[in-house]
Amino acid sequence: MARNELRPVVKLRSTAGTGYTYVTRKNRRNDPDRMTLRKYDPVAGRHVDFREER
């Protein structure tokens, strides 16, 4: 199996509307749905939810 099929690179965009993004990898077998992580947004200056965009 190719490397990018199982663990694709995904962009996590801030839900605060600042446009800030994180880039990470995820395992499709364990997380088939869109990923949501709570991370720090330096533009907003606080922790907010970051949602996977496609």
Automatic annotation (TrEMBL):
<dbReference type="InterPro" id="IPR011332">
    <property type="entry name" value="Ribosomal_zn-bd"/>
</dbReference>
<comment type="similarity">
    <text>Belongs to the bacterial ribosomal protein bL33 family.</text>
</comment>
<keyword id="KW-0687">Ribonucleoprotein</keyword>
<dbReference type="GO" id="GO:0006412">
    <property type="term" value="P:translation"/>
</dbReference>
<dbReference type="Pfam" id="PF00471">
    <property type="entry name" value="Ribosomal_L33"/>
</dbReference>
<dbReference type="InterPro" id="IPR018264">
    <property type="entry name" value="Ribosomal_bL33_CS"/>
</dbReference>
<protein>
    <recommendedName>
        <fullName>Large ribosomal subunit protein bL33</fullName>
    </recommendedName>
</protein>
<dbReference type="GO" id="GO:0022625">
    <property type="term" value="C:cytosolic large ribosomal subunit"/>
</dbReference>
<dbReference type="InterPro" id="IPR038584">
    <property type="entry name" value="Ribosomal_bL33_sf"/>
</dbReference>
<keyword id="KW-0689">Ribosomal protein</keyword>
<dbReference type="GO" id="GO:0003735">
    <property type="term" value="F:structural constituent of ribosome"/>
</dbReference>
<dbReference type="InterPro" id="IPR001705">
    <property type="entry name" value="Ribosomal_bL33"/>
</dbReference>
